[in-house]
């Protein structure tokens, strides 16, 4: 017999989504963590955002990696176990892998399994000699990383895209400490960080004219309907993104257009007109601010590459206090 509304299947991930949404909607300022943007549709929309003219971070960081990837690979390797956090479609990774030695190992970690497997397959075809060990997981929850390889290579964590901006500064320190534990005492970290800049440029990047960022944000509501059987009207909400200069972060919200309620798992969550669900923070850092943050997580700043306009930084840091640093030869590339 078929029930009217099928009980949502209870995979661990959906359990997690349900409890996160329920918890988030019970708060005074309602919120949902941004990692839930990345279901299959959300991951595709994110790739479309990255290709818009307004969203400068992707093309800027890609340019830096393209021009300076050889130098970066020399510092992290050129033989290493490269651990990428939130690898997604891993479009930028070849710019590094092409300069690493064949005995290197690549460990992409992502919560979106279809995308993880697809992108690893693509990379494996491009770099047949490099061993690849994809790991479907939430990288913030990884315990120590056990690889079945003889683990003699230096470990380097690759964290591009300024994903670190999704965390509050305190959480970012926690995550960078976690990266230090993952990579071990000799570890290296190559991390992309979006810089503070004119609010006009920032606001445009999160309000693209094609509407992909809006669709990406609103997809969270559609995902709640699809996976959790939430009763809600997606047209009752609008995308809102704005740079908060005091906090140095872009905030994204889903704003209720009217008085309404979302019903979820027997519970009702009321919204006043203009009331929002806070769906994402994207913190921006000056070079010095980020270095200060990383030092709190035991990392030593070693090298910096940025673009000519100073929109985006790629930092190289290491844990080994004896490793030479390469300042003041910071490359503007
Ligand atoms: C993947 C977290 C770096 O904050 O710029 C893009 C996500 N959100 N447009 C960012 C995002 C809206 C992106 N990060």
Protein topology:
Layout: H1 12-26, E1 30-31, H2 40-50, H3 56-76, E2 81-85, H4 94-97, E3 105-110, H5 113-126, E4 131-132, E5 135-136, E6 155-159, H6 169-183, E7 188-194, H7 199-205, H8 212-228, E8 237-244, E9 249-256, E10 260-264, E11 267-271, E12 276-283, H9 287-295, E13 300-306, E14 312-318, E15 331-332
Parallel strand pairs: 1-12, 2-3, 2-6, 3-4, 3-5, 6-7, 13-15
Antiparallel strand pairs: 7-14, 8-9, 9-12, 10-11, 13-14
Helix pairs in contact: 2-8
Give structural notes.
- This protein is an alpha/beta fold.
- Helices cover 34% and strands 24% of the residues.
- The chain has helices spanning 12-26, 40-50, 56-76, 94-97, 113-126, 169-183, 199-205, 212-228, 287-295; strands spanning 30-31, 81-85, 105-110, 131-132, 135-136, 155-159, 188-194, 237-244, 249-256, 260-264, 267-271, 276-283, 300-306, 312-318, 331-332.
- Strands 2, 3, 4, 5, 6, 7, 13, 14 and 15 form a nine-stranded mixed sheet that branches. A four-stranded mixed sheet has the order 1-12-9-8.
- Helix 2 (40-50) packs antiparallel against helix 8.
- Residues 49, 57, 161-163, 165-166, 206, 213, 280, 282 line the site of N,N,N-trimethyl-histidine.
């Amino acid at each position: 017999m078929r029930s009217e509304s099928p009980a949502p299947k209870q995979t661990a991930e959906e359990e997690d989504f349900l409890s996160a949404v329920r918890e988030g909607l019970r708060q005074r300022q309602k919120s949902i963590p941004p990692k839930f943007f990345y279901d299959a549709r959300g991951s595709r929309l994110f790739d479309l955002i990255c290709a818009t003219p307004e969203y400068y971070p992707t093309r800027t960081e890609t340019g830096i990696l393209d021009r300076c990837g050889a130098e970066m690979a020399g510092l992290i390797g050129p033989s290493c176990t490269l651990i990428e956090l939130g690898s997604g479609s891993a479009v930028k990774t070849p710019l590094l892998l092409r300069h690493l030695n064949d005995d290197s190992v690549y460990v992409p970690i992502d919560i979106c399994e279809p995308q993880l497997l697809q992108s690893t397959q693509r990379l494996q075809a491009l770099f047949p000699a490099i061993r690849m060990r994809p790991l479907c997981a939430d990288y913030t929850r990884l315990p120590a990383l056990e690889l079945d390889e003889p683990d003699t290579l230096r470990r380097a964590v690759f964290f591009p895209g300024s994903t670190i901006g999704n965390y509050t500064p305190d959480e970012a320190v926690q995550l960078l400490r976690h990266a230090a534990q993952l990579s071990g005492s000799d570890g290296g970290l190559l991390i992309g960080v979006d810089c503070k800049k004119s609010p006009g440029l920032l606001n445009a990047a999160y309000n693209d004219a094609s509407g992909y960022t809006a669709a990406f944000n609103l997809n969270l509501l559609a995902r709640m309907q699809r996976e959790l059987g939430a009763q809600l009207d997606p047209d009752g909400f609008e995308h809102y993104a704005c740079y908060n200069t005091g906090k140095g972060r872009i905030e994204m919200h889903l704003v209720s257009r009217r008085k309404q309620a979302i019903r979820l798992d027997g519970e009702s969550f009321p919204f006043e007109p203009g009331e929002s669900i806070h769906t994402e923070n994207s913190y921006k850092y000056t070079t010095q601010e980020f270095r200060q943050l990383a030092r709190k997580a035991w990392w030593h700043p070693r090298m910096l590459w940025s673009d000519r306009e100073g929109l985006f930084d790629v930092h190289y840091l290491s844990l080994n206090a004896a490793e030479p640093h390469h300042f003041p030869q910071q490359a503007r590339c």
